[in-house]
Design brief:
The complex is a heterodimer of chains A (about 575) and B (about 375). With about 575 residues, chain A is mainly α. Chain A has 23 helices and two strands. In chain A, strands 1-2 form a two-stranded antiparallel ribbon. By secondary structure, chain B is mainly α. In chain B, helix 1 packs across helix 3, helix 8 runs antiparallel to helix 9 and helix 14 packs antiparallel against helix 15. The radius of gyration of chain B is 36 Å and the shape is elongated. In chain B, about 40% of the residues are buried. The chains are: A mainly alpha (about 575), B mainly alpha (about 375). The interface between A and B is large, with 43 and 38 residues.
């Protein structure tokens, strides 16, 4: 007796697809966690190999430029998309490239990241881990031939998994994926990122043990008036964040102004500067968490912290701006700990009331600078909370958030990637994300000034009108141009259908009988736009015969690209 | 994903690919674990090397270098409490007491009964002059969990605590610790001598004499025990025993030689010494009055401001003269006690006004006076 094969219904298929996606999420979480752990281990091994137990001055001076010559060549010749931290590239991949990341990216990031960070550059390992994890997720999605939508969804999943293992902070990693990569705290990917993050952190802890990133003392708010001190720390942190971001951008611009022929050796130029810096202040080498740990436990004098702060600021700017591969999460935590420690020392000197230990200020300073430089306030709060496992820290952390000073900066420092193209894409997707929060209705998306053609006119006349209309000014010109393109495409399609010479009315058939109004939401407009040949006429609610404008793909992109509130 | 008609094959393909991925993940996990273990081994070996460098630097008095090296050791191996403890010692030696304390308190959270951590914390508290905290940590150390074979260290620690208390004039607290110490001491002469000295310093010459006596039983003729016993006997005003012990001791420091001289003078000049003929008593009293008078004059000359009260005493001394005749003493033997009392008050007043006497004769007179004041 033969068994009949019954095809799955669409609902069953969707269910199976969801199950497979869930399983895939777990596997990606595991692989992202493994990649982050392996990345960290590789950095430790290579650092030991480069510098030995107690590095001599010759090693400190010559290894950074020598290794940077190699990485400079690799970055220039083979992996141009992996400079910098990797977070902006990941955002760009998610928002602009449909989540597609080439296999060379995670591989190249791993290789160059290990070489850069372990050769002494003042950079972090967490940002690169994010790009590696996201890259692995995307490559797997492509390999499995998942739908573009699913491939895109895997990018934040891999990023969350990698960051979870890199920081040993699973909740903060999820928040980071939502806040930073997706740019939407209400994203439907919450479940997937949580699963990947948990899978990843389980892997990380089973390999390295449940060792916290920092050993921090128990925190207590000693006196309520201390909240004022934490607010002051927020202001100082905001100023330092702003200075760091501006300094980094200007130094990067200076490197860019150098002749193009020097691009391959720019990382080595940065390496030489770092080598000289290491001779004076070896504590700024690499990730630098030992110094952070020391500051958190009150083991540093204010003078020492001031020296380390200055050296770290300069070192990170040089390493990053010269085009090396490495992140700024760790440097921002380092800088924050030093700023917090210095402010805490000042508060202890000046305060008429009893205060918390300097380590507590260093801890809050870490959160402040992380929020100020990375511009991820929620991630920063949750990360510090997870590191300390202490609810009491939440109040001063909120008090210590930079009070809007970072908004003065043109971009968060890490968003400004090391290549011009990446800088643009990152800028674009950031603006788009911000703008998406303000664009609400069709009125915000539509072009109001459009050439209109009578329905009785022929196709030929219509196309001529669409092509011939002129605008005034740059904005008006862009709007008309877009309208022309939209109308033109529709008319060209009609011509291809053999309707050339017929009245427009005879060929222009909307697939939907629905009217589209200016108050329709973004979601509705986008859904209907896809069903309307790329042009959605917007008509008045009071008079459906009056066309108020048209939404096209171009007008949507333009609206989303506009700065928020403009 | 795919059209429904090709669903079974498509789904099977995805499941197979997922299984392959899971296999790859498993292999990657095993490889990464291998790498992690190697890294861990390297870290441990580096930490040990840094620890050795740091310890050597600390022994050589290079505290700053020791701190730097031990930081490297502790950052590579956070689990070895020895590294952290030595780092705390180096920090303390480098003058970074607050940080050393923070490190030690962190260690203490993981092991409140660790004697080594508590000892270091106690020593830091001593540096900060915080006797209560020092006492708390010393007690925690003493009653903590000591590894086998370190009982001797526990006793040495208690001695350290007693000395700390004695330095800060906390004699009662010190005495209770010495009592506790003496119950757990090994029964050998050095330990008993040590306990005896501590009893003596804590103001309990009775128990001190017991300890020295036991030491002499264990090692007859031991010079330190004889010296200690002599001092203890002197402290409890048993001058005969004091002179006996101190005379038997082969070598005495200057301080104890002085004690021996005073003890001899007390015995030789005390008019109330038993079984003395009256003439001897009188002679001793007369000598004492003359000595006191000379001391009074000397003191009045050096301190004119105090001369009024001293003059009154001088008048008392002068008034004594008729009562010191042999006949008068025979009729009124209690005049010897009176005379001795006046002598004592003169010596006392001179000591209060002009400082403690340095001459053994004057010190002996004070002792003689004190010896009989309780009885009179």
């Amino acid at each position: 007796m033969t068994r009949l094969k019954v095809p799955l219904t669409p609902q069953q298929l969707r269910l199976r697809e969801n199950q497979i996606f869930l399983a895939l999420t777990i596997v990606i979480g595991v692989l992202a966690g493994l990649s982050a752990v392996l990345f960290s281990l590789a950095i430790s091994f290579t650092t030991r190999a480069f510098f030995g137990l107690e590095p001599s001055w010759t090693r400190l001076l010559f290894i950074p430029p020598a290794v940077s010559l190699v990485t400079g060549f690799l970055l220039y010749r083979y992996f141009p998309g992996v400079r910098g931290s990797g977070v902006p590239q990941t955002e760009a991949a998610f928002h602009l490239n449909g989540g597609v990341i080439p296999p060379s990216v995670p591989f190249g990031k791993f290789l160059t990241g290990v070489l850069c960070i372990s050769s002494g550059h003042s950079m972090g390992r967490e940002g690169p881990s994010v790009q590696i994890g996201a890259g692995i997720a995307s490559v797997i999605g492509q390999w499995l031939r998942l739908s573009p939508e699913r491939v895109k969804e895997l990018v934040p999943v891999g990023a969350a998994g990698a960051l979870s293992a890199a920081f040993n902070t699973p909740v903060a990693a999820v928040i980071f994926a939502l806040e930073e990569i997706i740019g939407d705290m209400n994203a439907t990917l919450l479940g997937s990122t949580v699963v990947a993050s948990v899978a990843s952190v389980i892997v990380e802890r089973s390999l390295l043990g449940n060792e916290p990133l920092f050993h921090v003392p128990v925190y207590h708010l000693v006196h309520p008036a201390e909240l004022v001190a934490y607010a002051a720390l927020g202001v100082v942190g905001g100023i330092v964040s702003l200075g760091f971001s501006q300094g980094l951008l200007r130094l990067r611009a200076a490197f860019r102004r150098l002749p193009a022929s020097t691009r391959v050796i720019q990382p080595a130029m940065g390496g030489l500067a770092i080598g000289m810096l290491l001779l004076v202040v070896p504590a700024v080498m690499g990730v630098g968490y030992d110094s952070v740990d020391q500051a958190l436990n009150g083991g540093m004098l204010a003078g020492t912290m001031a020296i380390l702060l200055s050296a770290k600021l300069v070192g990170t700017m040089i390493s990053y701006a010269s085009g090396n591969a490495g992140g700024i999460f760790a440097p921002s935590l380092y800088i924050g700990a030093m700023v917090g420690g210095i402010v805490g020392t000042g508060v202890q000197w000046l305060s008429p009331f009893p205060t918390a230990d300097i380590g507590a200020y260093a801890l809050v300073g870490m959160g402040t600078l992380f929020a100020g430089i990375i511009r991820a306030p929620m991630t920063s709060v949750f990360m510090i909370f997870e590191i300390t496992q202490d609810y009491e820290i939440l109040v001063p952390l909120d008090g210590g958030q930079p009070p809007g000073l970072h908004d003065l900066a043109p971009l968060p420092a890490h968003a400004e990637s090391t290549t011009r193209s990446c800088s643009r894409t990152t800028c674009t997707c950031r603006r788009r994300r911000h703008a998406a929060r303000f664009v609400r209705t069709a009125r915000d998306l539509m072009d109001a000034e459009l050439p209109t053609v009578s329905g009785a006119a022929s196709m030929d006349e219509g196309l001529g009108a669409a092509r011939g209309s002129t605008g005034t000014g740059r904005a008006g010109g862009r709007a008309r141009q877009s309208g022309r393109r939209g109308a033109g495409r529709a008319l060209e399609a009609a011509r291809e259908a053999g309707a050339w010479g017929e009245p427009i009315r005879s060929s222009w058939t909307s697939p939907s009988a629905l009217a589209h109004h200016p108050d329709h939401s973004l979601d509705v407009v986008l859904a209907r736009l896809a069903d309307n040949s790329g042009v959605l006429p917007i008509v008045s609610r009071s008079n459906v015969r009056r066309v108020e404008g048209a939404v096209t793909a171009d007008s949507v992109l333009r609206a989303v690209s506009r700065p928020p509130g403009s | 994903m795919s059209a429904p008609d090709s669903t079974p094959r498509f789904i099977q393909r995805e499941v197979v690919l997922l299984a392959i991925l899971a296999l790859v993940a498993s292999v990657a996990f095993i490889l990464t674990r291998e790498v992690a273990q190697r890294q861990q081994a390297t870290n441990l070996s580096d930490a040990a090397a840094w620890y050795a460098i740091g310890e050597a630097a600390l022994d050589a008095g290079q505290a700053e270098r020791a701190v730097a090296s031990l930081r490297q050791a502790t950052s590579r191996n956070r689990d070895d409490r020895r590294y952290t403890l030595t780092l705390a010692r180096a920090l303390a030696a480098n003058g970074q007491s607050d940080e050393a304390r923070a490190v030690l308190l962190g260690l203490r959270e993981g092991g409140p009964d660790d004697p080594d951590v508590n000892i270091e914390l106690a020593r830091l508290a001593v540096r900060r002059q915080d006797v209560n905290e020092a006492l708390r940590f010393y007690q925690s150390a003493l009653y903590g969990i000591w590894p086998p074979g370190r009982e001797g260290e526990r006793s040495r620690l208690r001695v350290e605590l007693i000395r700390m208390l004695l330095q800060r004039e906390e004699r009662e607290r010190a005495l209770s610790e010495v009592v506790a110490l003496s119950t757990n001491l090994p029964d050998d002469a050095p330990s008993r001598i040590e306990a005896g000295r501590l009893f003596l310093a804590a103001g309990d010459p009775e128990r001190a004499l017991d300890q020295f006596g036991r030491a002499l039983q264990l090692t007859p003729g031991d010079g330190d025990a004889l010296a200690g016993a002599g001092e203890a006997a002197f402290a409890r005003a048993d001058y005969a025993a004091a002179r006996r012990y101190l005379s038997q001791a082969p070598e005495l420091p200057e301080r104890l030689q002085d004690l021996r001289a005073v003890a001899r003078l007390v015995l030789e000049q005390d008019p109330l010494e038993p079984r003395l003929p009256l003439a001897t008593r009188r002679a001793r009293l007369v000598a004492a009055v003359e000595r006191a008078s000379a001391r009074l004059e000397q003191c009045a000359a050096s301190r004119p401001a105090a001369s009024a009260s001293l003059e009154a005493l001088q008048a008392e001394l002068t008034a004594l003269a008729p009562t010191l005749e042999l006949r008068a003493l025979r009729d009124q033997p209690e005049q010897i006690d009176h005379g001795l009392d006046v002598v004592y008050r003169v010596e006392r007043a001179a000591a209060d006004s002009c400082g403690a006497p340095t001459a053994p004769e004057d010190r002996a007179l004070l002792r003689i006076g004190e010896r009989h004041r309780g009885a009179s």
